[in-house]
């Protein structure tokens, strides 16, 4: 039995991942961005051991969430599932940071840096990472023309870079990125071909299986198979540049 923390687990793939792991007997801690969403998560996954609340669009709340998760842990597995899709116009959070980048990239970076190291880390990416751009000089679209879809694809590429960087820097931790597919959910919409159970399958497998294929590290997977990510994902120089940018924005460096 493993102790697992799943961010963004009040609905969609995150909730299905948490519920599946809880049904299998694992100790699962949920996460929601607000008290209202936390109640929804508790009702949906009553066998979870608890729900932590924190809005990932706030650096202060993300730090507080990390502190609460540290107290609730330690966790054998952390699944960074929380994320947002796209917005028609560029929007900044109260921290003055572009919203998609802060929630999808800075938040998992900050939680990774502040939480005690688990045995396994899973970062939810997307097939859109293949269309991501390496624009480290303008991560927040301050100069580039705004494209909500491009911002999302960039963020999902950054999640792969983060997973690979952690795998390289922390060899004792199994760290991977997952493309869950196009899933029928609030984010994916009703036209998506896959169910939330399909989307949760690989994250659950990576979190809980001892099969040889599930205990690899530094991989980008979909359908329980390693796939080829964006050509820049495995470049240590690009990984380190992203880590440096995240450290500068958060004031927190990823521990060696």
From TrEMBL:
<dbReference type="InterPro" id="IPR002347">
    <property type="entry name" value="SDR_fam"/>
</dbReference>
<dbReference type="GO" id="GO:0016491">
    <property type="term" value="F:oxidoreductase activity"/>
</dbReference>
<dbReference type="Pfam" id="PF00106">
    <property type="entry name" value="adh_short"/>
</dbReference>
<dbReference type="InterPro" id="IPR036291">
    <property type="entry name" value="NAD(P)-bd_dom_sf"/>
</dbReference>
<protein>
    <recommendedName>
        <fullName>Short-chain dehydrogenase</fullName>
    </recommendedName>
</protein>
<keyword id="KW-0560">Oxidoreductase</keyword>
């Amino acid at each position: 039995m493993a102790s697992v923390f799943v961010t963004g687990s009040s609905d969609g793939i995150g909730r299905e991942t948490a519920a599946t792991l809880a049904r299998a007997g694992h100790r699962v801690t949920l996460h929601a961005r607000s008290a209202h969403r936390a109640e929804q998560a508790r009702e949906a996954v009553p066998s979870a051991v608890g729900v932590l609340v924190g809005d990932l669009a706030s650096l202060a709340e993300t730090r507080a969430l990390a502190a609460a998760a540290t107290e609730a842990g330690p966790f054998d597995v952390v699944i960074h599932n929380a994320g947002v899709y796209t917005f028609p116009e560029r929007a900044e959070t109260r921290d003055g940071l572009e919203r998609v980048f802060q929630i999808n990239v800075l938040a998992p970076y900050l939680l990774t840096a502040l939480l005690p190291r688990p045995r396994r880390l899973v970062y939810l990416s997307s097939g859109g990472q293949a269309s991501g751009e390496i624009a480290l000089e303008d991560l927040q679209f301050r100069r580039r023309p705004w494209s909500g879809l491009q911002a999302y694809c960039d963020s999902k590429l950054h999640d792969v870079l983060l997973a690979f960087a952690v795998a390289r820097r922390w060899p004792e931790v199994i760290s991977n990125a997952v493309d869950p597919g196009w899933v029928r959910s609030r984010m994916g919409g009703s036209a998506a071909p896959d169910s939330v159970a399909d989307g949760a399958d690989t994250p659950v497998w990576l979190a809980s299986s001892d099969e040889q294929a599930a205990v690899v590290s530094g991989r980008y997977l979909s359908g329980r198979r390693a796939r080829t990510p964006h050509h820049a994902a495995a470049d240590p120089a690009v990984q380190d540049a992203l880590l440096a940018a995240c450290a500068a924005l958060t004031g927190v460096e990823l521990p060696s």
